[in-house]
Amino acid sequence: MTTKLEATAGKVPEIGPSQLDLLEKLCNATAVSGDEHEVRQIVLEEIRSIADDLKIDALGNVLAARSGQGENRVRVMLAAHMDEIGFMIVKKHDDDLFEFERVGGIDERQLPGKPVLVGRDHIPGVIGAKPIHMTTAKERKSKIESSSLRIDLGPDIGSKVKPGDRATFATRFEVLGPSIRAKALDNRLGVATLIELLKHAPDNIDLLAAFTVQEEVGLRGAGVAAYAFDPDMAIAVDSTPAYDLPHWDTEDQNVQYNTRLEAGPAIYVMDRATIADQRLVALLTETGDKEGIPYQHRQPGGGGTDAGAIHRTRSGIPSISVSVPSRYAHTAAGIARLDDWANTLHLLHAALSRVTPELLAGERRD
Amino acid sequence: MKSLIQKLVETPGPSGFEYQIRDVVREAIGDAADEIRVDALGSLIAVKGKKTDQGLRVMVSAHIDEIGLMVTHIDDNGFVRFTNIGGINPLTCYGSRVLFMDGTRGVIGMDGLDAGKTPKLSDLFIDVGATSKEDCFVKVGDVCGFDRPFLDLGKRMVAKSMDDRISAAVAIEALKQIKTTPHEIHFVFSTQEEVGIRGATTAAYGVDPDLGFAVDVTRSGDTPRMAARMATALGDGPAIKVRDSSFIADPRLVDWMVRQAESARIPYQMEVLEAGGTDGRAIQLTRGGVPAGCVSIVCRYIHSPSEMVDTDDVENAVKLLVKLLSEPIELD
Predict the structure, then answer these.
(1) Given an 8 Å threshold on Cβ–Cβ distance, is B19 in contact with A363?
(2) For chains A and B, what is the number of CB pairs under 8 angstroms?
(3) CB half-sphere exposure, A148, CA atoms < 13 A
(4) Cβ separation of A316 and B40 shorter than 8 Å?
(5) CB–CB of B96/B108 below 8 Å?
(6) Alpha helices by DSSP H, chain B
(7) What is the per-residue pLDDT for B246?
(8) What is the pLDDT of residue A1?
(9) Helix, strand, coil proportions of chain A in percent (round to 5)?
(10) Which of A202, A236, B166, B223 could covalently link to A305 via disulfide, CB atoms 3.0 to 4.6 Å apart?
(11) pLDDT of the residue at A247
């Protein structure tokens, strides 16, 4: 293990077949907020041999530390949430139809007719929809409340499912040329990135990796993780929507696209939960400029990441977020570009390699 | 004091971008504090006094950030779209002038020029005088505040950021006027209040106070056809907060504040604010919980570019704060 460790430490991580396999495993796993077991097991398996210190805290966050070498090392926390949006079974009805609630932000208009997987055994089912044969023109114009939808599991199978079980969209991971299509790219892209960074951690810093829980229900895991690590600075690694669909730059301009695919990692200046530390904005943009790694500014506005909880912890922690852009976030299937993922990984690795105590020596600035 | 107020209110400093205003505060405090430090979120903390047997570690918090705008997109013709930093009312935006942190100025225009419509933020844009995307010198992520000079109307004063620079002025003046105190007072000039009381949260954790006061503005109920129920009025003295929507002031502290105001013959009014929050929440909820109260300065037209306060209220707020911080605090 030690030889392997020395062979990779500090080197620039690349996205190859084994990284894609890992991302596939992560995306296909079920980890709805509050029950992140499956993803946690995959993470632990990947990092057990490379972390100097590894623990699972009371909320289920995986906290992995990897020490650098030399003096005056900055303690950098990186956070990626393991949980995903999904469903929770709340009640069984006759004929093995299950009432459910949404966990995290899901638009109920896109639920009817979607295949799902229920529970830790991934029991297949479907969120039933009324066939078009039976609907009226009026019905087809209005949305169906999620409270009137049911997950259909069929007879016999339903006895294995109980209230409290989680469910996710059944979408399986696919590579589509330069793109990937999967559920839960938000935030398995971040988790996979963080695993690679841990495996290739630069020696100038102490890397404190938090694979967090319950982000999608209110940034709950990251706060306690930050309290435990008490780091000098933090970067949340996440995935953010790209709404760069047609007309985003035509005459009738779409001026609210959040991010664009193929424009590189999205660097945050401000979202609803955090105003990024400008020293860290400069670190990332200057790194991108110097290393020739493309990047984009995520449009300031709504949304929130683990940084929102982290930066307010204890006496305050300089924080920022970097996201891999992906289309159709919080739906059954997202689309991301492999290049954006690779560039996110490269930008973060290069930026971490440039972190020195001088970065944070002065006061927070504009 | 008015020249200090003018300097404070005219300096730009939207939430998260308090570098310039922090320097103005630091210069105004000069050597009046025993120690000055800045925390990770940029709050300036000025300490005065040593804790005695009869004293406490007291946190006094006035926020130095103001509401503002951040650039989200620049179109081909150089028009600048933006989002809000804190509670911006689109009604007060059209025709306003803005000042970017680097000194760039611009005006706010509106899609379609339909003067009869109440705009949404997404209908508005900033025009910085550019003719194209290429010669537009602001970029996504840049920040501006409203650009409005200080207006001295004698009895009343008007400015874009009375919320909450007037309280910063009151805290600075109190810090300077306090001669003796049994307390170790941590004057916190906090950041990011307008986006969710963030700076005071981390500052309170760092200070670890025994007791605390926020100093902030509150709404006035004395303008025509007020829809909100509010008993406060300009000129009736500093307000002693009973509650706002972010915290309920410690009732023992409220009673004690009233007794102190009465014994010093300082006019005061009671404040019940049904919508709005202050740094008092951050103080009260830090660590294991802390008794907290708030001294408010009544203000008209809050979160518009023309916020109005009463000069006597401001002076009496300084007197009240000096009184509160100069004597042992008894809660029963």
Answers:
(1) yes
(2) 88
(3) 6
(4) yes
(5) yes
(6) 2-10, 19-29, 162-177, 198-207, 251-263, 280-284, 311-326
(7) 96
(8) 38
(9) 30, 25, 45
(10) A236
(11) 63
- What residue ranges do the domains of chain B occupy? 2-66+160-326, 68-146
Q: Which residues pair with B185 in a beta bridge?
A: B48, B58
Predicted pLDDT at A156: 82
Q: How many residues does chain B have?
A: 332
Predicted TM-score (pTM) of this structure: 0.95
Query: Quick one: pLDDT at residue B332?
Result: 82
Q: Specify the pLDDT at position B305.
A: 94
Among A253, A297, A314, whose Cβ lies nearest the Cβ of B205?
Answer: A314
Closest to A31 (Cα-Cα) out of A19, A20, A43 = A43
Q: Which of B15, B73, B195 sits opposite A299 (nearest CB)?
A: B73
**Cβ proximity of A203 and A349 under 8 Å:** no
Nearest Cα to Cα of residue A207 among A324, A343, A63, A82: A63
How much is the pLDDT for A3?
43
Type of residue at A121:
D
In CATH terms, B2-66+160-326 corresponds, of 3.40.50.880, 2.120.10.30, 3.30.465.60, 3.40.630.10, to: 3.40.630.10
Q: How many CB atoms lie within 10 A of CB B177?
A: 14
In this structure, which amino acid lies at residue A283?
A: L
Q: Measuring CA to CA, how many Å separate B303 from each of A55, B151, B168, B223?
A: 47, 16, 17, 16
For chain B, the helix, strand and coil percentages under 3-state DSSP, each to the nearest 5? 25, 30, 45
Rounded to a whole number, what is the distance in angstroms from the first to the last CA of chain B?
35
Q: Do A297 and B141 touch (CB under 8 A)?
A: yes
Residue A249 token pair: 């730059």
CA dihedral sign of residues A173, A296, A355, A216? negative
Interchain pair B41, A300: CB under 8 A: no
Chain B contact for A315 (CB, 8 A cutoff): yes
Point out the residues of chain B with pLDDT beneath 50. none
The pLDDT score that the predictor gives to residue A360 is 96
CATH code for the part of the protein at B68-146: 2.40.30.40
Q: What angle is formed at CA A169 by the lines to CA A165 and CA A171, rounded to 5 degrees?
A: 140
What pLDDT sits at residue B248?
A: 98
CA–CA separation, A312 and A301 (whole Å)? 19
Chain B contact set for A317 (CB, 8 A)? 40
Give every CB contact of residue B289 below 8 A, 6+ residues apart in sequence. none
Contact with chain B for residue A318, Cβ under 8 A: yes
Q: Which residues of chain A have pLDDT under 50?
A: 1-5, 7
> What pLDDT score was predicted for residue A252?
63
Residue A2 has what pLDDT?
41
pLDDT (tens digit per residue) in B236-282:
999 999 999 999 999 999 999 999 999 999 999 999 999 899 999 99
Q: Domains along chain A? A: 2-84+183-360 (3.40.630.10), 86-169 (2.40.30.40)
Q: Residue B331 corresponds to which tokens in the numbers above?
A: 């809660």
Indicate if A6 belongs to the active site: no
For residues A192 and A194, what is the distance between their CA atoms, to the nearest angstrom?
5
pLDDT digits 0-9 by tens, B185-196: 999 999 999 999
